[in-house]
Amino acid sequence: MKSTRLKARVAGTAAAVAVLGGAALATAPTAAAKANVISIERAQLRAGALSVTVKYSCDTGLAWNLVSKMSKVDQEEDPTSLATATVASDKIICDYQTRVLKLKLQPTKGSHFVKGDEVKVSADYVAPGEQENGEPFTVITTVL
């Protein structure tokens, strides 16, 4: 009689451990195959210099440039204001970790940005040697 109860307890404990272990695995974050992510944290104009701070994460083995663009929202008032920055693929670390980069944007000839301008900022991954195609990965509108 005692051995049957003991077997039942052992079997019940084993089943509970298996269920809890499966639940823990199901809810655990994955270590690989993380989505490629970019988020724009800040766009600013300080001492005449434009910069964009981005957080990014990408899968290992990928070789992309990170490109950011800034333009005025009201392009009728100032149609030529555009600033861009590119971080080369050899400077991008793709290892599933979230990293932060500050990009210094270079205004195109004739561009004019001042504090208080409403700007549209975009960021995207682009293969080396290629141009941005279609919609950027992420876009924000903010005031400098």
Description:
There is one protein chain. The chain has a seven-stranded antiparallel beta sheet with strand order 1-2-5-4-3-6-7, with no helix packed on it. The longest helix has 26 residues. By secondary structure, it is α+β, with helices and mostly antiparallel strands. Strand 1 and strand 2 form a beta hairpin. About 3% of the residues have low confidence. It is 18% helix and 40% strand. It is elongated.
Helix-strand blueprint:
Layout: H1 2-27, E1 37-46, E2 49-57, E3 65-72, E4 82-87, E5 99-107, E6 118-126, E7 138-143
Antiparallel strand pairs: 1-2, 2-5, 3-4, 3-6, 4-5, 6-7
Which properties best describe this structure?
144 residues; alpha+beta; 7-stranded antiparallel sheet
Short characterization:
By secondary structure, the chain is an alpha+beta fold. It has one helix at residues 2-27, and strands at residues 37-46, 49-57, 65-72, 82-87, 99-107, 118-126, 138-143.
